[in-house]
Records
---
Amino acid sequence: MSEDQKPIKGKGKDTEKEKGGEKEKDRAAKKLHKAIDGLSKEQVTQLLDLNPALANELGSRSNDDPDSAADALKRLGLQDIMTGLASSGKNAKDMGAYKFWATQPVPKFGEDGDLAQSVEEGPIRIQTVDEIPKTPAPLLDGFEWSTIDLLDDNQLKEVWELLNGHYVEDDEAMFRFNYSTSILKWAMMPPGWRKEWHRGVRASQSRKLVGFIAAIPVELRVRDKVLHASEVNFLCIHKKLRSKRLAPVLIKEITRLCNLEGVFQAIYTGGIVLPKPVSTCRYYHRAINWQKLYDVNFSPLPPNSTPRFQIRKYAVPDRTSISGLREMQKKDIGAVQDLLTRYLAKYDLAAEFDKQEVEHWLLHNKKNALEEQVVWTYVVEDEHRNITDFISFYCLESSVIGNNKHSNVKAAYLFYYATETGLTTSVDKEALKSRLNALVSDSLVFCKQYQFDVYNALSLMDNGLFLEEQKFGPGDGQLHYYLFNYRANPIAGGVDKRNRLDVGALSGVGKTQI
Ligand code: MYA
């Protein structure tokens, strides 16, 4: 499948403007044009493979014709080209330009050779709780720190409002995540959550919430070491306060708050390149309501195709195929936790979940009828009443910006899954492939029943075994995984150097992020 689709969840857009004067830009543009002239057809094709956003910009026809792609490249502005050119990924800067990140305990670009040899894994900076300041750093005049109580519906709504208007958009500002209040509670209040780790910045006079960052606890396994860590998410600054270096202040504050609880390592993800990803996965999208996705400019109409053909291509069966497949119930928690734990053991990067966490993350809480459903989990129960498989997805809508016809796209995100088929002593890849295809295909039936428009998945876990067969197409978004204060060797993200699905070497990432 070659058609590129825009990411609903391409986390992070470039917030850094190109620096330097016009003359310098002209000189650089000339140099670049010369460099493009020197590229072979194969190199142009490779360049576009590595930069789906850039290929998208050039239009699908240039994709097949390297000569016209090279011409189109020259017509693009310097900044557009630079956005996609850096060899280590979109928006990568020189290490010196990361003024904040250069001061943090994270691996740097260029150190450890960056290439073949492996490094000793472990913490970068060792500290004790006694060394950590008990009070936050001061904010700009007119702003103050505020701990947000998500149990208070008014404060929950304030966070929702900030994120709804100012959180992650795609590169062309066509879609913005629209996390519902239910998903915010689900994502930020798992077992062990702490109110102090929901940190906001308010304008002192108006009391308006203008900045936010959150962390949750996670037992994170990196290869054979389990880290008592946190997972940082929902960093957001009001659009009017951007580029004022407030993000580093929020990041340092959440670091302090984690450190005070004896947590010195963290995991976080983003669509932008920072020093230095431990893994990079690619987004894939499976159209369900193709017509709507086309109407909102999410899915293109490929050349030589027709809307009718596209709609038929993405048709979903009415019924599931696996016998014994049913919705997960409370009584399944123990079996699902056991199966998931054994399944996640094969990945280099994964969370360790206890039973309470499995209940929180996977079981839809039917008691609370007022809360909309966030997560859907289906188990397969065999004739001996054993749970042999499960699959789950969660709902995350995106607002469609400035479209007359539709205001929202309802996306299902593939979450965790596991199957006994992948756990037999001599793992039979073909059997695993066929079982995963059946599970994902059946989950698609439920996605359709619940009126999702699109099913999104990353190239992580064993997804390479079913993405193409289940008609997931590559998106232009990437998700970079980062570890804070922990040096680790790279972990496969499921795509090769040319950003294509690497079925031969599946991903080592077994950790999903919301
Ligand atoms: S990822 C989602 C991030 N949120 C969005 O994309 C929402 C829309 N954008 C915004 O709200 C703003 O643009 C943000 C930046 C807030 C992103 N992760 O204040 P600035 C660095 C890390 O002038 P602004 C998520 O939530 C940037 O490289 N750093 O910029 C996970 C530069 O530093 P340097 C980022 O645009 C978050 C500096 O900030 C990100 O006004 C994980 C510029 O600051 C980013 N996504 O605001 C956070 N974007 O000079 C790290 C920009 O060095 C957690 N920057 O290049 C680390 C672990 C902490 C806990 C540790 C416990 C032990």
---
Amino acid sequence: MKDSENSKVTPWEVSGRVDYDKIMTKFGTEPIDQNIMNSLSRLTGGDIHFMLRRGIFFTHRDLGWLLDQIKKGENFYLYTGRGPSDHTHIGHLVPWVFTKWLQDKFHAKLIFQLTDDEKFLFNENLDTEKTHSLALDNALDIVALGFDPKLTEIMIDTDRSGLLYPQAIKIAKKITFSTIKATFGFDQSANIGMIFYTSIQSVPAMIESVRAGKNIPCLIPYGIDQDPHFRIARDVLPRLGFLKPASIMSIFIPPLSGVEGKMSSSDPNSAIFVTDSASVVKRKINKYAFSGGRTSVEEHRKLGGNPDIDVSYQWLRIMFEPDDAKLKKIRDDYISGSLLSGEMKALLIERVNAFLKRHQELRERAKDTLHEFLAEH
Ligand code: TRP
């Protein structure tokens, strides 16, 4: 296993075994400590999402401040996003499920940005028609998760995005080329759209304040790889008279191939897509999910397995087994050797397929209601 020295976390690449404590130090973010948990719990009537309890969302910026504002009765909104480069996969759903929980608990407005422009600019093989149609496709998954249509706006960057450009240029004017090079590591061959792009991703972090004509706090849930964008946003927005956005960040859901890196669409065998059939899910998990089990059943019964490197267990922990007591039993049984690797996989297959069956139905139905989410902006 590679150590953390070899790991890499940028908005466009995550590889190696990520040391999340080191990332926090390097990025300068705060851990989600007991104080934060307590004030959150006071506001949600005692409910703490399992992704918080289990450290899936593990770090933040200014969350304590935001919760104080909420306590004082201040309004706030949520912002998250997705770069549509392919069908949605299970890894993408992790922050969305959590964002939905936040919306439900706080009755908060959500802006969901689909950055088809980003995927066009950063990917040699995608044209604008493709990225736009993928944005519409991915939007169905957002609707299917059950976000409140009255509180949710899906913003496709290249589609009726009249408000986006006039705000993006204000941000762009405050960012130098050298900041972009230092933050994202682009070299001389980068196209100029890539250099400009981060200003587009910052706009939703202030757009509600622009619309309201007064500052409204914003909370952004995201996978920690997106942090460089929001470091820049937090630097620039105050210089334009806006608040710094608060944020809450998650770890990555590992690819099927092992607990290093993150699930990525570029290796279809390492990801499960929301559009995969039940038999494809079964085959992928049985064939590719890295196992923390022993080489033979006898050895496994005697010595037990290692859930920390077992991808099926990790997926149950991160997304598919919300019940702490059940998860603990699965973990204990695996370590003791009474639960076999194939049985762990079977548990996961059952969960994923139950989830996808329903999701695929809801996704079909979402075609009728999508327009309610794509408001003029
Ligand atoms: N850049 C992100 C991606 O490639 C998409 C995105 C845009 C995003 N705005 C966001 C992600 C806000 C999280 C939060 O997926």
